[in-house]
Every structure is written in C-alpha cells, then in structure tokens.
Amino acid sequence: MLCCTLGAIASAFLRLLLGFAGIQQTVAFPFLTYLAFTFVVTSLTWLFVFG
User: What is the pLDDT of residue 51?
Assistant: First the structure.
C-alpha cells in the first residue's frame, strides 16, 4: 500500500510539474503515460524498500 501511494503521489506531482511548465498538452496518451509513471515509481519504491 505504501508503494502504491507513493507512486500515485509522484504521478500527481509529475502532472503538476508538467502543467506549470506548460507542456502537459503535448503528452501523448496522458492516462497511459501517468499510469506507466505510477507503475515505475511503485516498482522502484518496492525494490528499494523490500528488495
């Protein structure tokens, strides 16, 4: 649960950063992009904490 939560928070933070930079509209398939980023951060968190 901790890893999923951190992944979701990181994805939301990425979305905010892209919005502030003004390049959020250029992201291809935003749902899949943010979902993939969430998966990567979740996996890396799990790896560093438990692996």
Answer: 86
